[in-house]
Amino acid sequence: MIITNTSLKPDSRHATPRFKAMIPILPLIVMGACLVAAFGRDAEGSQNHGVADKTATDKPATSKTLVATEGVEQLERLAVETMVVELSDGTLCVSGYDDDSEKSPGLWRSRDHGATWESVNVGSKTDGAIGDSDVDLAASPDDTLYFVAMTFDVKKLEGVRLAVGASKNAGAKWSWKVLSENRFDDRPWIGVAPDGAAHVIWNDGGGVRYAVSQDGGSTWNLSPRIHEQGGSSHLAIGPHDEIAVRITPWSASGKKFNAGVDLIAVSRDGGKTWQTHPAPGERDWSPDFDKGTPRWVEPLAWDADGALYSLWGCAKGLWLGVRRTKVRPGQVGTSWREMNSLSSRT
């Protein structure tokens, strides 16, 4: 965990009030992220009420077991909305931002499973390493590291730029490209498919935008919008190059609200075409950002068999939805199955 011994700045931008509002439910968010990462085949191998699925195969589970370890504190820059990836040799990389437009986006690296950390020089502003807001990380099968960062205008309280960097040597050297310089650019996500293609989504108040790189981040091709309304809440890429995008009502750093937009878009051809589906479950979305359930991300994840998971919270607790495409005998793969993962009484 990366923390600082200085206080947060006043609520002068979009992320700080959102972050403060979410402090009381951070344990819920952390547990939810762990559930999405860990459920995998095990979650789908059980029926409701904990009854074992008799049709399950003897194929060994491919998901990794999450093991709690002793925490490590790294006192340095503030790292808000941190992201983490692991390279094939076990190197951990963590990104975050601290509202400081004079510094390059923050990145840290650990080569000993988190026991010690070092800052990574991602380049200077003249190199294109610019960003003081939302960030995301991704790693390709060949360990190319991708880092996307947003720039936020604290006077106008809106996003103005997105840049994406790529490194082929665990962060030793970076190449940066400007992805977008439009008003309301907001909440980028990046992921890499098994075929090596890197996919980025973001929103700008006019829907969910999408770009892809087939050459390790040297060039980025802007594709048609995935959806004409809503915000980019999350991105997940599956084992067979499937792509899922969570689309929610809020966009443009909280300045735009599209009622009724509560969707999951899925592509099974590398982003060429998309199908949108209503998200499972029910959520309370309010056009008043300060009312209703505090929300930041509605996580998605694929398991090794191509089942898609959606996690969300509501007044009744934390819920996990599962949608399969490879169905077992007697199962239907075109609908969601919902499981109450964490009781509201917890």
Q: What features would you highlight for this structure?
A:
346 residues; mainly beta; Neuraminidase; four-stranded antiparallel beta sheet; 8% helix; 38% strand
Secondary structure elements and pairings:
Elements: E1 2-3, H1 15-22, H2 26-44, E2 74-75, E3 80-86, E4 92-97, E5 106-110, E6 118-119, E7 135-139, E8 145-153, E9 158-167, E10 175-180, E11 186-192, E12 198-203, E13 208-213, E14 221-227, E15 231-237, E16 243-248, E17 250-251, E18 256-257, E19 263-267, E20 275-278, E21 300-302, E22 308-314, E23 317-323, E24 337-343
Parallel strand pairs: 1-2
Antiparallel strand pairs: 3-4, 4-5, 5-6, 7-8, 8-9, 9-10, 11-12, 12-13, 13-14, 15-16, 16-19, 17-18, 19-20, 21-22, 22-23, 23-24
How would you characterize this protein structure?
With 346 residues, the protein is mainly β. The protein has one domain: Neuraminidase (6 Propeller). 8% of the residues lie in helices and 38% in strands. The strands form 7 sheets. The chain has a 4-stranded antiparallel β-sheet with strand order 3-4-5-6, with no helix packed on it. A 4-stranded antiparallel β-sheet has the order 7-8-9-10, with no helix packed on it. The protein has a 4-stranded antiparallel β-sheet with strand order 11-12-13-14, with no helix packed on it. The two termini are 24 Å apart. Residues 1-62 have low confidence and may be disordered.
